[in-house]
Amino acid sequence: MPVWPIVELRQYTLRGGRRDELIELFEREFIESQDEVGAHVIGTFRDRDDPDRFVWLRGFADMARRAKALTDFYTGPVWKAHRQAANATMLDSDNVLLLHPAAPLGGFISQMRQPTAGEIVAFIHYLDDASIAPFAAYFVESLVPCVGQVGAQLIAAFASETSPNTFPQLPVRETDRVFIWLARLGEGDSARFLDAWHAQGGRRDAAADALLPAFMRKPEILRLVPTARSPLR
Q1: Quick check: is 27 in a domain?
Q2: Any idea of the CA torsion for 128, 131, 137, 138, to the nearest 10 degrees?
Q3: What pLDDT score was predicted for residue 111?
Q4: CA–CA dist 78, 84 (Å, integer)
Q5: Is residue 68 within a helix (H) or strand (E), and if so which, with residue range?
Q6: What's 7's DSSP letter?
Q7: Residue 205 is part of which domain span?
Q8: What does the pLDDT look like over 96-118, one tens digit per residue?
Q9: CA–CA distance, 76 with 69 (Å, rounded to integer)
Q10: Could you give phi then psi for residue 87, rounded to 5 degrees?
Q11: β 178-184/153-160 pair status
Q12: Domain of 99: which CATH number?
């Protein structure tokens, strides 16, 4: 499985009722055309809790090649031919987190495409620079075992990439610091998973005192349904 050192988590706010229109266009025109220039589409999703939200992941070999790939794509013939139609579906496309694989797990740790596509949940923990490394260690020790206990499969872990944005034409959330993990539910139901997850107690007991401020803000949780052609399912 490819391991992308740089990953974007992109959340688009769309005009009412136009999500399927964008997904049809995206899957027809923007998957292979981005892959060909080195902007690799990792996954495309409907947000189960927001009918006007399209979420996708894109990977790159490094920041320099990200700049070249995005330049090649956004100045290339496919985007020029379809950008007006794509942009017409969107209210906002600037909700973007720039990430790298989080040690010690690192990026995607299980197979991407599965025979059956269930929901994927993404937990976005908002931290500060000093908390990223200790939170990653706490995650491996205290949270990873809990994921399996409630019937999910951990598939990836990422942390904020703090390098300057090498393609400023597309903004990213440069001041936010996050730790993100994704889990696959197979054919399970995300509501049941989240009920079981929230019912677990004591997960924070092993955290060092210095890490306690990291729990002041609840994580943002995305319930993601893979689209028909999503590589990540």
Answers
A1: yes
A2: -90
A3: 54
A4: 11
A5: helix 63-74
A6: E
A7: 6-226
A8: 999 999 987 777 875 555 555 68
A9: 10
A10: -65, -25
A11: antiparallel
A12: 3.30.70.100
Residue 87: inside a domain: yes
* Number of domains the chain is built from: 1
Give the torsion through C-alpha atoms of 68, 158, 232, 17, to 10 deg.
-80
Nearest to 100 by CA among 55, 46, 60, 140: 60
Distance CA 233, CA 230 (A): 6
Of residues 57, 35, 73, 13, the one with CA closest to residue 182: 57
Question: CA-to-CA distance for 95 and 54, rounded, in angstroms?
Answer: 11
pLDDT of the residue at 110: 58
Average pLDDT of 207-213? 89
Please report, rounded to a whole number, the percentage of residues in the chain having pLDDT higher than 70.
94
DSSP 161-219: --SPPS-TTS---TT--EEEEEEE-TTS-HHHHHHHHHH---TTTTS-GGGGGGGSSPP
What does the pLDDT average to over 81-88? 98
Nearest to 69 by CA among 192, 166, 186, 180: 166
